[in-house]
Design goal:
Distance between the termini: 71 Å
Number of helices: 37
Number of strands: 41
Radius of gyration: 29 Å
C-alpha cells in the first residue's frame, strides 16, 4: 500500500481499542517515514495504524435493513431556527439518496430547497405536529425517522412520537440519536447528573416545574440568576433575573415556552468567556473536533446574538486540549454515536475554571457556521453516520483525498456578526440576554481577526463601511455622553462593537473597557490597533505601503477615501494603478495541506492567488446577504434555483453571498462560491477576476438591486430586466406615466422631500394616507397616518431611512382586498405564475398577510382584469424574468399598488402550488432562452387550494403590541395544501403554531366597525359548541342579536378582568380587532398577555373569518396528508376550483 504524503490526522478512541483498525487514540498524529503515523506530544507511536489518502474499505457498510427514512424538517423561519436547517436537511436528503434509500421529508416551509419535489422521493408540506407526522408514518411506514437535522422542532417532534408509543406501534426506529440520548442531553436534571458522573463541573442550578419549585431553587442559588427553559430553541422564554419580580416573570414565561414545563434556575456566569465546540462521533467511538468557536461577547448573551470567532483565539493550548477532551467525554457519556453535536463551555477569565453550559444532541445553528467556516459538511456526514458509516469510511468532499476522521484545520479567521430588527418592534427591550433576538447573521473570512471583522461589519448591510471611518456612525454620538457610553459598554446591545471604538477614541484604556464590558483584552487590543491605524490613515498621503496595510486590515476603499478626503472611485483607481488587487484563497479544510477540489473562495490581500477559472462561460448570481425581516430564505431559494438553471444550460454558476445559514453558500450548490460581503467594491473585485458573461441581480432581494445601478455604470454585464426598467418601476413620476399610458388605475399619490410637501400631498388626496420611503424592502418605515400630527411625527422620524430618495405618500384604500401576482416574461410572452388573494385587507403588509391561491372570493372578471394589467405592465416595463405586482380591489375597481420587476418572496410558494419552478425558468429566460423553448406558455390553475400563512417572533419581544400594519414583522411562512379550503387553512394555521381549539372558550372584542360584521362568525362559533366571552360593547352587540355570550371586565373596569382570565389560561382563543386611541392600552395588554400565555390571537376581521372556517373544518372531520408530488399530479386537470 503506498504511503500518503505528510498529513495531520486527528483521531479518537479509547487507547485500549487500538487493536482494531478503525478505533484510534485521540492525539495529533503525523506521517513520519518509516514509522507510519506518530503522535506528537504523547510519546505514543501508532505502529498498528497505516492509513492512506484514498477511500478506506468499509468494514461496516451502510445499513441494509433500512429501506426508507423520514427526515423531520424544522418548519418556518423563526428567531433561533432559521434557514441553516434547510441547508442541513437538503444535505441529508442528498446524502441518503446517494445510498439508495427512499427518502421521505416533512416540512411546512415552502421557501426551502428541501421541499422541492426533486429533493426527496416523497415530500409532505404538512404541519410538523405529532398528529400530522403520525398520519405520514401510518401512510408511508418508513423503516426509520431522522429527527436530528430539523433543529429543536425536529428533535421535539421525534421525542413526542417516541413518548406516545407511536414509533413502537408502527415499528419505526429513531436514528441519528436515540430517545434516551435526546432526553439525557435536553432534560436539565439528567444532563447535570451526567456531567457530575464524569467529573465535569456545571453551574450550580436546580430545575423547577412550577413557581413554587422555582422559588425554592432561587433560595439556594440567589440573584442574579439565569432561567433556561427545557426543550426550546434560541433560549425562548429564558433570561437573566436581577430581582424577584423579574425572576417570577421570566419563570412564568419559561414554563409556558418549555415542551415539558421545565426551567433550570442557574447561577449567573455573566462576564465569563464562552466557547463552543462542534464535535462529531460515530458508533465505533471515532471522534473529531470540527471547529472551536469563541464568543466575543462574554456569558450572558445568547450565542446566536453574540459576535463569534473561529477558531477560538484566546485559549491557551492547555485550555484548548482540556476543552476538546471534555467535549469527547461528554459525547460518550450522553451517548452520541452517530452525528454532530454542539457543546458549550464557560471559562472564568481569572482562574481558568471551566464549566459545561449545555449541549445540543443534533445539528445546530452553530453547525452551519462551523460547516461554512471549515468546509466540513457536518449535516451530510451526520446523515451518513446515522445509517451505519464510520468517520474513517467517509471521504471529505472538499479534498477528495482525506477521510472524514481527518480533523479540519484552518489557516484563516472567521467572524460571524448577528443582524437585528428592533426597529420593527417598537418598545422592544434592546438588551441582549440569554433569549435570542437576532433575525439573521453574516459571516466573513480573512487572514486575520481584524480583516475578517471589518468584512463582517461591511457584510451586515446596515450601511456601515467597517469599524470606524463611517460618516453616519450612530455610535459617534456616545462620545459626547460618558454615562451613555458606559451603559453601551456595560449593557450588551447591538451597537456595543461600535461603542468599543468610540471608547478608545474618547481616551479609555483597554483595562477600563474590559472592566466595563468583560470582553477579552485580546479582542479589545485588536480593536485598539484598528483605531490607532485609523488615526494614522486620516489625512495621510496614500502610499502603496499604506494602502496595502489598510487593505490587509480590512478597510474598504470608501473608508480609505473618507480618511484621505478623496472619493471611492479615485482610491480604487489609485490602488489598481499601484497593482494592489485582492487575491482569492480556497477554503480547503486542511490549511492547504491538500488541494481543494471544490472552488470555495474568500478574498484577502496577499501575493498568491488560488482562483482557478473554469472553461465554460460563467454567470454570476448575487445573493441576499444576511437574513432580515423582509428579505429572507425566499430569496436564497431563488438564487439556488438560478445556480441550478445556469448549470442546466451548460454554463458555470458563480455564487456571491455572505450568509452562512443558506443552501446558496453550500460548497456544492454552484461551480464557484465567493464568500464575500455584497458591496460595490467587493462584487466588482470578483467581476474583474471571474469575467462573467452575465450577472443576475434580481433574485437576492433589495441587496443586489441596490448595487445594480453602480455595477451597470462600472460596466458589469447585468442580464435580465434592465436597470432603467427597474428605475421606472421604483421612481414615482416615471411609474405614474407608465400607469397613465396603459390606462390603469392607482391610488392618488405624491412625493415629498420635506414635511411641508407631505402636508400638501395629504391635503390634496385626503387622509388616511400610506407613507413610505422609496427603494426599501419589507415595508420598512411604512405607516398609515390619519392626521397632520401623525404625518409630522413620521416625517421627522422616518425620513432618513432612504436619504437619497423622497417619501412616497399614497391614498390609503380602506377595506380593499389586496391581491399579489407573480409573473414571468421573456420580452414577448408574459405568463401568470399565480394570483394570490390576501385574507387581510389592504393595509397589512403582504408579507404578513395570509393568502390563498387560487383566489377564493374574487369574481372571475376581476381576476381577468388583473391578468390583463399584469401582462401589459410586464411588456411596457420590458421585464425579462420575474415580476411581482400588488393590487387593491375596492368596489369592483382594480388599483395598482406597486410593481417589483424582480423575484418576490412569494415565488417559492407559487412554484410549489403550481408545480413549476418559476425562479429556475426565469433564470434561463435571463440567459437568453424563451418561454416557448422552456414549454411554459400558459398559466397553471391548481385544482386544490394553497394557503400561505406568516409566522411572527412576538414571543421574543414581551410587551410588544402584535397588531399588524403596513410594516412587515413576520420572520417566516408556512403552507397548507388541501382540496378543501377549510382544511388548507387548518394545516397552515397549525403549521404556524396557532393552536386551534376544538372546544373551549373564545374571547371576542372587536372595534365598532366590525361589530355587525362579526355576527355570522359568532353564531357559527356558538353553533360549534364554543363558549363565548366579550367585553361590554361586543357583549351588547352579540347579546342583542340572540347570541349567548358572557360579559367580562376590561382591564380598567375592575377585577377579575380579561387579562386575569388570560393569565389563568381560562381562554382558548382570542378574536380582537384594534380599537381607536382610547382603547389601545386595553387592547395592547390583552394581546401581550395572549403572547405570554401562548393563546392564539387573531387581530383582523378577515383573519377571524378564516380561523372560523378552519374551526368549522375541524368539526367536519379530519384532513388527509398528501405529498407535493401527489398534489401536482392533479395539475393535469385544469378547471379552476371553487371555495366550499
Amino acid at each position: 500500500m503506498p504511503r500518503p504524503p505528510e498529513m495531520w490526522l486527528s483521531i479518537a478512541s479509547p487507547a485500549a481499542s487500538l487493536a482494531t483498525p478503525h478505533a484510534f487514540c485521540f492525539n495529533r498524529a503525523v506521517w513520519s517515514p518509516p514509522n507510519g503515523f506518530e503522535t506528537r506530544g504523547s510519546g505514543l507511536t501508532l505502529d498498528l495504524l497505516i492509513l492512506h489518502a484514498a477511500p478506506i474499505p468499509c468494514t461496516m457498510p451502510r445499513r441494509d435493513d433500512l429501506q426508507s427514512i423520514l427526515i423531520i424538517g424544522s418548519g418556518p423561519i423563526v428567531i433561533g431556527q432559521a434557514c441553516e436547517f434547510d441547508y442541513s436537511g437538503t444535505q441529508a436528503c442528498k446524502a441518503l439518496r446517494e445510498e439508495g434509500y427512499r427518502v421521505i421529508l416533512v416540512n411546512s416551509n415552502p421557501a426551502t430547497i428541501m421541499t422541492d419535489p426533486e429533493t426527496a422521493d416523497a415530500i409532505y408540506i404538512e404541519p410538523i405536529t405529532i398528529e400530522a407526522v403520525t398520519k405520514i408514518l401510518e401512510k408511508e411506514r418508513p423503516s426509520a425517522i431522522l429527527p436530528t437535522l430539523g433543529g429543536q422542532t425536529g428533535l421535539n417532534t421525534g421525542l413526542g412520537l417516541y413518548d406516545r408509543g407511536i414509533l413502537d406501534r408502527l415499528g419505526v426506529e429513531m436514528i441519528g440519536a436515540k430517545a434516551e440520548v435526546i432526553r439525557k442531553a435536553e432534560d436539565r436534571n439528567l444532563f447535570r447528573a451526567a456531567m457530575t458522573s464524569i467529573g465535569m463541573e456545571s453551574a450550580r442550578s436546580g430545575s423547577a416545574h412550577n413557581m413554587d419549585d422555582a422559588r425554592r431553587v432561587l433560595s439556594e442559588i440567589g440573584l442574579p440568576c439565569v432561567i433556561r427553559p427545557g426543550f426550546t430553541l434560541g433560549g425562548t422564554g429564558g433570561g437573566i433575573a436581577y430581582n424577584v419580580d423579574e425572576f417570577e416573570e421570566i419563570v412564568e414565561r419559561g414554563l409556558a415556552a418549555s415542551m415539558n414545563s421545565e426551567v433550570l434556575v442557574e447561577e449567573c456566569l455573566a462576564g465569563w468567556k464562552e466557547f463552543e465546540m462542534e464535535v462529531m462521533r460515530d458508533y465505533k467511538d471515532n471522534a473529531v473536533i470540527i471547529c472551536s468557536i469563541e464568543n466575543l461577547d462574554p456569558m450572558g448573551v445568547h450565542t446566536g446574538d453574540s459576535i463569534t470567532v473561529a477558531p477560538a483565539q484566546t485559549l491557551t493550548d492547555r485550555e484548548y486540549q482540556n476543552m476538546r477532551n471534555a467535549s469527547i467525554r461528554i459525547l460518550r457519556e450522553i451517548g452520541i454515536e452517530c452525528g454532530g453535536s454542539n457543546v458549550q463551555f464557560a471559562i472564568e477569565p481569572n482562574t481558568g475554571r471551566m464549566i459545561v453550559i449545555e449541549m445540543n444532541p443534533r445539528v445546530s445553528r452553530s453547525s452551519a457556521l462551523a460547516s461554512k467556516a471549515t468546509g466540513f459538511p457536518i449535516a451530510k456526514f451526520a446523515a451518513k453516520l446515522a445509517v451505519g458509516y464510520t468517520l474513517d469510511e467517509l471521504l471529505n468532499d472538499i479534498t477528495k483525498k482525506t477521510p472524514a476522521c481527518f480533523e479540519p484545520s484552518i489557516d484563516y479567521t472567521v467572524v460571524k456578526i448577528p443582524r437585528f430588527a428592533f426597529e420593527k418592534f417598537k418598545g422592544a427591550d434592546r438588551t441582549l440576554t440569554t433569549q435570542m433576538k437576532s433575525v439573521g447573521e453574516t459571516m466573513a473570512i480573512g487572514r486575520t481577526f481584524k480583516e475578517a471583522l471589518q468584512k463582517a461589519v461591511r457584510g451586515l448591510e446596515t450601511g456601515r463601511l467597517g469599524i470606524g471611518l463611517d460618516p453616519r456612525d450612530p455610535a459617534e454620538l456616545l462620545a459626547e455622553d460618558e454615562a451613555a457610553l458606559t451603559r453601551a459598554l456595560r449593557v450588551p446591545n447591538e451597537h456595543r462593537l461600535l461603542a468599543l471604538r468610540v471608547a478608545y477614541r474618547a481616551g479609555w484604556s483597554t483595562d477600563d473597557i474590559f472592566e466595563a464590558s468583560k470582553i477579552d483584552p485580546w479582542f479589545l487590543e485588536n480593536i485598539r490597533e484598528l483605531v490607532d491605524f485609523e488615526n494614522e490613515l486620516s489625512g495621510a498621503l496614500l502610499t502603496k505601503e499604506l494602502i496595502r496595510d489598510a487593505k490587509r486590515l480590512g478597510y474598504s476603499d470608501r473608508q480609505i477615501a473618507l480618511a484621505a478626503g478623496s472619493t471611492e472611485a479615485d482610491v480604487t483607481a489609485l490602488r489598481e494603478e499601484m497593482g494592489i488587487r485582492p487575491t482569492y484563497k480556497l477554503v480547503d479544510t486542511c490549511a492547504a495541506e491538500f488541494e481543494a477540489a471544490t472552488p470555495y473562495y474568500y478574498s484577502t490581500w496577499e501575493d498568491e492567488d488560488e482562483y482557478r477559472p473554469g472553461k465554460k462561460p460563467r454567470v454570476m448570481i448575487l445573493g441576499g446577504g444576511p437574513n432580515r425581516i423582509g428579505q429572507g430564505i425566499e430569496f436564497d431559494y431563488c438564487c439556488v434555483h438560478a445556480a441550478i438553471a445556469v448549470q442546466e444550460i451548460g454554463r458555470e454558476a458563480v455564487m456571491v453571498n455572505s450568509n452562512p445559514e443558506t443552501v446558496s453558500t453550500d460548497y456544492d450548490t454552484s461551480d464557484d462560491l465567493f464568500f464575500e460581503p455584497l458591496t460595490h467594491e467587493d462584487v466588482m473585485n470578483i467581476v474583474k477576476v471571474v469575467k462573467p458573461e452575465g450577472i443576475i441581480v434580481q433574485f437576492g432581494g433589495q441587496t443586489p438591486l441596490n448595487l445594480a445601478a453602480g455595477l451597470h455604470r462600472a460596466g458589469a454585464p447585468l442580464i435580465g430586466t434592465s436597470v432603467d426598467s427597474i428605475d421606472r418601476a421604483e421612481d414615482r413620476d416615471l411609474f405614474n406615466q407608465c400607469i397613465k399610458k396603459l390606462g390603469l388605475h392607482q391610488p392618488e399619490s405624491g412625493m415629498a422631500a420635506d414635511t411641508g410637501q407631505a402636508f400638501a400631498v395629504a391635503r390634496r388626496i385626503g387622509y388616511p394616507v400610506l407613507v413610505r420611503p422609496s427603494y426599501v424592502l419589507g415595508g420598512r418605515a411604512m405607516e398609515i397616518v390619519y392626521d397632520d400630527e401623525a404625518l409630522e411625527r413620521y416625517m421627522s422620524n422616518a425620513a432618513n431611512v432612504s436619504p437619497d430618495r423622497p417619501i412616497l405618500v399614497d391614498k390609503f384604500l380602506e377595506e380593499a382586498i389586496e391581491v399579489d401576482v407573480d409573473a414571468i416574461s421573456d420580452g414577448k410572452i408574459v405568463v401568470i405564475g399565480g394570483v394570490m388573494e390576501h385574507i387581510e385587507e389592504a393595509g397589512i403588509h403582504s408579507g404578513d398577510s395570509t393568502c390563498v391561491l387560487p383566489p377564493h372570493t374574487l369574481p372571475m372578471e376581476i381576476q381577468d382584469e388583473i391578468r390583463r394589467a399584469t401582462k401589459a405592465l410586464a411588456k411596457e416595463l420590458g421585464v425579462i424574468g420575474l415580476m411581482n405586482v400588488q393590487y387593491a380591489v375596492k368596489e369592483d375597481r382594480v388599483f395598482v399598488l406597486e410593481v417589483n420587476p424582480r423575484a418576490s418572496r412569494t415565488v417559492p410558494f407559487v412554484s410549489k402550488a403550481i408545480g413549476r419552478p418559476l425562479a429556475k425558468l426565469a433564470a434561463k429566460v435571463m440567459c437568453g432562452m424563451t418561454l416557448e423553448e422552456l414549454g411554459f406558455t400558459e398559466e397553471v390553475t391548481p385544482p386544490y387550494f394553497s394557503v400561505k400563512t406568516p409566522v411572527f417572533p412576538f414571543s421574543k419581544f414581551p410587551g410588544v403590541d402584535i397588531t399588524l400594519g403596513p410594516e412587515m414583522r413576520s420572520t417566516g411562512e408556512v403552507m397548507g395544501i388541501d382540496d378543501d379550503l377549510g382544511f388548507a387553512f387548518v394545516k397552515a394555521y397549525q403549521a404556524a403554531g396557532l393552536k386551534l381549539p376544538k372546544t373551549g372558550r373564545v374571547f371576542i372584542s372587536v372595534k365598532n366597525a366590525d361589530k355587525r360584521a362579526i355576527l355570522p362568525e359568532a353564531r357559527q362559533l356558538h353553533a360549534l359548541g364554543y363558549e363565548l366571552f366579550a367585553t361590554e360593547g361586543t357583549w351588547r352587540a352579540l347579546r342583542s342579536n340572540g347570541i349567548a355570550v358572557t360579559r367580562v371586565n376590561k382591564v380598567h373596569e375592575g377585577r377579575p378582568h380579561i387579562v386575569d382570565m388570560l393569565k389563568n389560561r381560562e381562554i382558548d382563543l382570542i378574536l380582537n380587532t384594534p380599537y381607536g386611541k382610547q382603547q389601545r392600552i386595553d387592547d395592547s395588554s390583552i394581546r401581550s398577555a395572549a403572547v405570554t400565555a401562548g393563546i392564539p390571537c387573531v387581530t383582523t376581521k378577515a383573519g377571524i373569518s378564516a380561523v372560523v372556517s378552519a374551526l368549522a373544518a375541524i368539526h367536519r372531520g379530519d384532513y388527509k396528508v398528501n405529498t407535493i408530488q401527489e398534489h401536482q399530479l392533479k395539475l393535469l386537470r385544469t378547471e379552476p376550483v371553487r371555495a366550499r
